[in-house]
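Saturday, quiet lab. Running sequence design on the structure tokens for the scaffold JK sent over.
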């Protein structure tokens, strides 16, 4: 060390080496910072291109099936005189809080965006009630088709998602008992019959019957809603597991659970309602008696609507949502019906997945919900139904895959084609005429496409007609109209072309 200190040259050498090391450290730090900004190799490997959990994309074929289903549902709603509304996709958090019972934990809360706590809508019913109260509307018959969001555990194969469409039909207003309720069930019957999903059952019950049943079975008042949520699981769990949850998790006595078990096993029609009105225990509850009287009235209207062959009075039906006050109902596809609709032997999903679709529609009466939003607590009686479009769509999609039927993804009626080169301008002139006349037409985006390529496109896309232009056709003032399916060709004058296309496509 004493030698180094006495030799200036060695000192300078050590200093330059130290500076070089510091420069290297600085450059390495810069490179690491740049790598972090650009996103290193590790980041690239970790990123997976996919849709978020519980969501999906829809290809053109799937959208064609979906649009057909929507069209069937909307035409039914309109046939029954409904008008439509729309509401925001998110609401104030307090609007949704306390309306869904134990399902409230499934609400998507949004990050605070400048002073308002917001949540994505969980269903379309609560926003509808808020809309009625806010606009002081006392009667309306409306339908609403829109997306809702639930932080659920998705089961994609069974049509259960975190983002999904709901198709709601509701009647708000003070009317005579059970007439609007019966029409809601008629609508479910019509939609499921028209969609041809297979055999189905519509289960009905009444919240007042459930509450009366809980009371006479010894359920404490404060446990009504939580026990109701457990009973609601009977369509997914066997009675033994439901009983265990009541007793072990909810603290209900075994005797009360066993008495509930006797009632929830009952199914029938108007005859069951009459029998329960005479039941020694249940007849003690005024609430239950009022519900049973309405069930009887409901079945008398359902007979007039000719739907009683599919409707069953089922005491196990609970529907877990807190806002129901009277009649509740749920439509389920029977196992045989789902299996037939899905073609379970062909879809590769296995029998279990094919028949585990769950309910495809549900609803009920909620007379107190609007009053929860009204400053003066004014009530607007409401009854409605929600069609489970995603589950229906899952079945329709499997059904389409199982059949050999080709699904068209466009509505093009005619392809404007050319048989020779240098006819792009003539094709564009003709297609402009067709579009102006309201005809759905398409042209290939090439100056000189081959005729075979144009014809092949028509066959693949299911376009029924081809309007072929050639030099001779232009001289003669005609268009060669070709029927793709039969390959029949006919010369049609330009003046008559539009009416001929309309005539021929009306027959397809």
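Result came back. Writing it out in full:
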């Amino acid at each position: 060390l004493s030698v180094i200190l006495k030799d200036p040259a060695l000192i300078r050498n050590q200093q330059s080496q130290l500076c070089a090391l510091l420069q290297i450290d600085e450059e390495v730090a810069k490179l690491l910072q740049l790598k972090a900004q650009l996103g290193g190799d590790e980041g690239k490997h970790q990123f997976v291109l996919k849709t978020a959990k519980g969501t999906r994309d829809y290809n053109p074929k799937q959208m064609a099936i979906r649009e057909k289903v929507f069209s069937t549902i909307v035409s039914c709603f309109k046939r029954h005189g409904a008008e439509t509304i729309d509401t925001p996709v998110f609401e104030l958090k307090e609007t949704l809080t306390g309306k869904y019972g134990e399902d409230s934990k499934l609400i998507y809360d949004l990050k605070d965006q400048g002073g308002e706590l917001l949540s994505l809508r969980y269903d379309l019913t609560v926003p509808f009630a808020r809309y009625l109260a806010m606009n002081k509307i006392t009667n309306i018959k409306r339908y609403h088709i829109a997306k809702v969001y639930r932080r659920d555990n998705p089961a994609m194969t069974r049509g259960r998602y975190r983002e999904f469409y709901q198709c709601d039909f509701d009647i708000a207003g003070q009317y005579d008992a059970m007439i609007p309720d019966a029409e809601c069930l008629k609508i479910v019957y019509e939609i499921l019959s028209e969609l041809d999903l297979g055999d189905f059952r519509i289960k009905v019950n009444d919240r007042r019957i459930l509450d009366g049943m809980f009371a006479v079975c010894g359920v404490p008042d404060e446990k009504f809603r939580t026990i109701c949520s457990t009973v609601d699981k009977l369509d997914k769990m066997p009675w033994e597991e439901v009983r265990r949850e009541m007793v072990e998790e909810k603290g209900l006595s075994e005797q009360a659970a066993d008495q509930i078990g006797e009632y929830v096993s009952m199914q029938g029609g108007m005859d069951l309602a009459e029998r329960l009105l005479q039941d020694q225990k249940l007849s003690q509850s005024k609430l239950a008696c009022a519900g049973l009287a309405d069930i009887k009235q409901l079945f008398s209207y359902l007979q007039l609507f000719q739907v009683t062959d599919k409707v069953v009075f089922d005491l196990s039906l609970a529907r877990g949502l807190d806002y129901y006050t009277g009649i509740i109902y749920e439509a389920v596809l029977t196992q045989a019906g789902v299996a037939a609709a899905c073609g379970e032997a062909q879809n590769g999903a296995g029998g279990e997945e094919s028949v585990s679709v769950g309910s495809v529609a549900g609803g009920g009466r909620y007379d107190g919900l609007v009053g929860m939003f009204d400053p003066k607590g004014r009530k607007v009686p409401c009854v409605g139904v929600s069609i489970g479009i995603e589950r229906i769509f899952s079945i329709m999609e499997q059904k389409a895959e199982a059949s050999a039927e080709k699904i068209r993804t466009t509505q093009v009626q005619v392809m404007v084609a050319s048989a020779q080169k240098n006819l792009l301008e003539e094709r564009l002139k003709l297609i402009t005429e067709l579009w102006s006349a309201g005809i759905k037409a398409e042209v290939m985006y090439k100056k000189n496409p081959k005729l075979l390529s144009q014809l092949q496109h028509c066959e693949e896309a299911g376009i029924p007609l081809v309007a072929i232009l050639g030099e001779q056709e232009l001289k003669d003032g005609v268009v060669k109209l070709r029927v793709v399916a039969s390959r029949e060709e006919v010369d049609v004058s330009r003046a008559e072309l539009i009416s001929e296309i309309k005539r021929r496509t009306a027959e397809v």
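Notes for JK: Confidence is low (pLDDT under 50) at residues 336-356. The two ends are 102 Å apart (CA to CA). Ask whether to fix the surface positions before the next round.
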